[in-house]
Amino acid sequence: MTHPHLLDEAVALQAATQSGPAPAAGDAAAVPLPDTFDGRTHPGYANMIGPFGGVTAATLLNAMVIHPARLGEPLALTVNYAAAVADGAFRIHAAPLRTNRSTQHWRAELLQEDGVLASGTAVFAQRRETWSSTEIGFPQVPPAEALPATTLKRVEWTRRYDLRFVDGGFPDFSLGAAAGDSQTRLWMRDEPPRPLDFVSLAALCDVFFPRIFLRRRQFTPAGTVSMTIYFHADGPMLAAQGTAHVLGVARAQHFRNGFFDQSAEVWGADGALLATTHQIVYFKE
C-alpha cells in the first residue's frame, strides 16, 4: 500500500459539516457547510512557533484548488499571516468573489478559536497560448547533483526538503560579522521526492529563511507578515518537472524600522521560470 506524501497529509482538507435536523429515526444528519473545509496541522511541518508558513500558504491554496466552483489554474496568491496557528484542528473558509471570462478571484481565511489567523486572496486564470519571453536569465550554477544536501536542519519542517546550497546557506551565527548581501541560491525539492504541482510550489516559495539571518549573521526573531506568489508556469509545465530539484534565488532589498522585504525566483531544472515571490517580514531587536 502506498502511503500519501507528508505534504499531502499536511494540506489535506475535508468538507466541513454541521448537525442538521434529526431524521425520523437515528442520529442527526450531517449537513455540509458551503465553502468550508476542516484540516489539522501536521507535526512534520512544525516551525519554531506553529506550522511552517509555506505549508499554511499551500493549505489555503489547496482549499481553493479543490473547491467545486474553481475554474482555471492559480495565477497569483497572497497570504497575510495575522497570528501563529496553534497545533491542532483548524477551519478554512474559501469562496470565489467574482468569475470573469479569463480570471476568477478568490478569498480564503484560516480560523481557530482565536479567530482569523491567516487570510488569503488568489486569482485563477484560464491560460491561453500567446507570445512569451523571460527577461531575467537563468542563473549559472552547478547542477543539483554536483552539490551535497545540507545536513543542517534547525527546525522540523526543514527535514521535509532536500536543500543543496550554491551560496548563501544557513549562516554561522558564531561569526558575528555582518555579510555584504543577503543572496541565497539553492536547489530544493520535497523530501521524499514528490511530483511538482501548484500546492507544492507554493510551499517551496517560502523555503528561504529570513534574509536578516544571513545579512546580520545573528539570530533575530522574525516572521513573514505577507507573502505573494506569482505562478508563471501552467500545469503541464509543472508536471514536466516531475520530482527534479528546482532552483531558488532569494535576496532582500531593504531593512528598516523592524521590517524588510525579500524576493525570490523559482526556476525549473530546464531553465523555465516557474514562479516569483515577494514577502514583507517583521523583525525584532
Description:
This protein has 285 residues and is mainly beta. The chain has one domain (6-19, 30-124, 142-283): Acyl-CoA thioesterase, double hotdog domain (Porin, Beta Barrel). Helix content is 13%, strand content 40%. The chain has helices at 6-10, 53-65, 198-204, 211-216, 235-241; strands spanning 14-19, 30-40, 73-81, 89-99, 103-112, 115-125, 161-167, 184-190, 222-231, 246-256, 259-267, 273-283. The protein has a 12-stranded antiparallel β-sheet. A hairpin with a 3-residue loop joins strand 4 and strand 5. The longest helix is centred in the N-terminal third of the chain and has 13 residues, at 53-65.
Q: Which strands sit side by side, in order, in the main sheet?
A: 1-2-4-5-6-3-9-12-11-10-8-7
CATH level 3 topology: Porin
Largest sheet: 12 strands, antiparallel
Mean pLDDT: 93
Number of domains: 1
Annotation keywords:
single chain, 285 residues, mainly beta, Porin, twelve-stranded antiparallel sheet, 5 helices, 12 strands, 40% strand
